[in-house]
Amino acid sequence: MPQPGRVDTPARGAWWRRLPAAQTIGVGATCVVLVAIAYATRDSSLGGSPVHTDDAWVLLGWKARGWTDVQRTGSSSLGFVLLLRAWLEIVGFTHRHAQWLPLIASLLGAPAFLLVSLRMRIRYSAALLGSAMLLASPTLVSYATRVKQYSFEVLLAILLIGLAAALLREPAAKRTWIAYSICSVISLVVSFALVGIVAAGIGAGLIAAWRENGLDGGRHSATSIYAIAVGLFAGAWFLVIIRPTRSTALHDFWSGFYLSEPVGTPPAPPWWHWTDTTHQDIFAHDWKLVQFLFEGAFSGPTMVLIVGFVIASVLVAVQRPLQAVLFGTPVLLAVAGSLAQVSPFGGGRTDAWLYAPMTFMIVSAVDIVLRRVQDIRRPDPRGRRTSSVASKSGALALPGSIMLIALICLFNIPAATAFAWPDVVPLVTTLEASRKRDDLVVVGTAFTFNYALFAPQAFATKVDDRNATHFTPVVQGVNVMNWQDYATPVAELDRRLRRVRDVWLLDAPNIAYPMGEAPRRQLASQGFRPVSQSHSTGGVLEHWRNGP
C-alpha cells in the first residue's frame, strides 16, 4: 500500500497498455459517453444567437490585417486569436464555424480530465466524479460556444497538471521536463492566464527534484535549466505582448468585479483587509466574489462546495503535500492578486483556468478517502490481515455513492444560456446599401466591435483608454464616429454635423450602453429630421437629414 505523501514511480510502458482489456474498453466507452453528453448539452447554442460584442472583439483578430491590430484584439490570448485565424482560413468565416473551435476544446475537457486522473493513479470513481463536475460547470457550459478562450484554458490546464504530476513521479526525467516546458510555452501563448498553472507545475517539480537529489544537485541539474527557460519566456511574453495592452480603464473595469474594492482603482489595501468591514464592506464584497467563483465552477449548493473544497485542501496538504502545491498554488496566486489589487491573470472576469486545479484538489481528496476505506485491514486470530465485513461494505458503498453523485451531476447539467445581443448584420447591410460616402455614421457602444467586424471595409485600431479593451476599431473609408470614444460625445457630434447633410445612428436602445436621447436632441436642434428607420432584433438604424 502506498504511504501517505509518497510519490510512486509507475512501471515502464504506456499506462493504458497495463490496464486489463475490459477496463481499457470501459475507459474508452466512458470517454465517448462524456463527449456525447457534452455535445448534446451544448449543441443548442451553436449559431443560435447574434454575435455578442465580446465575440466580435475576438473575431476582429480574424479580420485584422496589421500585426498591431491582431495583437490588440488578441490581448492576453493572442495565441487563441492566431489559432482562430488559421481555423477560419481553412473552414471559412461564419459565426457557427468560429464557435466550433471552443466547442471542440470543451468536448475534450471531461475525457482529458478522466484520462489524466487515471494516469495519476486516482481511482476510477473519483476521476469520473471530477469529469462530471467539469461537465456540469455552469460557466463552462455557457461559454462552450462563445468565441472565447476559456475552454482552451481548462483543457490546457488539465494537460499541464497531468504533465506536472508526471514530474512529481519522476522529477529527473528530461523528456517529461521538455514536454512540460513545451506545453507551458504553448499554453502561455494561447492564454497568459495560465501562468498560475505553469508556475505551480514548475514549483512542485522543483520541490520534487530537490527532495530526490538534494538542493545542490537540483540546482545544477537540467530541471533548473528548463524552469529558468520557461520563466524567461513568460517574462519576455509579458513585456512584449501583454504589458502594452494594459491601461487605467482596463484596471478600473475589472477592479469592480474580481478585485477587492467595489469601484475604481483604489490604493493598495492593508493586508488585514479580509477582516476589515468598515470601508465599503470590503469583506462582504470579497465574500460575494468567492461565492461567485464556486457558483460558476460547479453545480450544487455553494456553501457545501466551499466547505468541501476547504476540507479537501487540508486533507491533500496532509497526505499528498506535493499535489497540494500543484493544485493549491494557482488558487493562492489568485487570492494574492486580489489582495495586491492586480487584475486577474489574463484580464478577464471568468477565471476558468482555476476550475481545473480546484477540481483536481477535490478529486484527490476523494481518492485519499477511497484508498483509506478500501485498503483497511485488521489481523485475524492467526495474525493474518483480512478485511472485516464492515470494511468490505464500506469499500463497496463509498465508490457507489461517488458514482451516484457523478450521475447526479450528469443529469443536472445546466442548459447552455445564450447571451442576448442585438443583431447588427441586417442593419449594416441596409446601411452600406443606402449611405453616401460623406454621410456621418454614429455607432453606439453596443455595436462598436460588431460594426467593424461586419462592415465590408477594412478596419484599423487605435489606442483608447476610454475603452476597457484599451483599443477601439475604426472602419477605414467611412466617416464614422464611435459614441463611446469621446469624453463629451455631444460636443464631438456637434463639430461633425457642420460638414454633413445625412447622419446614420446605429444603436441598441434597449440594451447596455445605449446612446440615449442626447444625439437625437442635438440633431433636432441643428435642423436634422428623421427620414427612415430600420429595425433588427434589439437594434435600430435611424437616418437623419438636414434640409429637404
Any descriptors?
548 residues, alpha/beta, five-stranded mixed beta sheet, two-stranded antiparallel sheet, 21 helices, 9 strands, 8% strand, disordered N terminus
> How would you sum up the global shape?
elongated
What order do the helices and strands follow?
A: HHHHHHHHHHHHHHHHEEHHEHEEEHEHEE
How many E strands? Answer: 9
Distance from first to last alpha carbon = 91 Å
Q: What's this, in brief?
A:
The chain has 548 residues and is of the alpha/beta class. Helix content is 58%, strand content 8%. The protein contains 21 helices and 9 strands.
Explain what the structure shows:
With 548 residues, the chain is α/β, with parallel strands linked by helices. It is 58% helix and 8% strand. The chain has 21 helices and 9 strands. A 5-stranded mixed β-sheet has the order 6-3-7-9-8, with helices on both faces. Helix 3 (67-74) crosses helix 4, helix 5 packs antiparallel against helix 6 and helix 10 packs antiparallel against helix 11 (222-242). The chain starts with 20 loop residues before the first helix and ends with a strand. The model is unreliable at 1-12 and 256-279 (pLDDT under 50).
Write the layout of secondary structure elements.
Elements: H1 21-42, H2 53-63, H3 67-74, H4 78-91, H5 95-119, H6 124-135, H7 138-142, H8 150-169, H9 174-190, H10 195-219, H11 222-242, H12 248-255, H13 282-297, H14 302-319, H15 321-339, H16 355-374, E1 378-379, E2 385-386, H17 389-411, H18 425-434, E3 440-443, H19 448-454, E4 459-463, E5 471-475, E6 480-482, H20 489-497, E7 502-507, H21 518-525, E8 528-535, E9 540-546
Helix pairs in contact: 1-5, 2-3, 2-4, 2-19, 3-4, 4-9, 5-6, 5-8, 6-16, 6-17, 8-9, 8-10, 8-15, 9-11, 10-11, 10-15, 14-15, 14-16, 15-16, 20-21
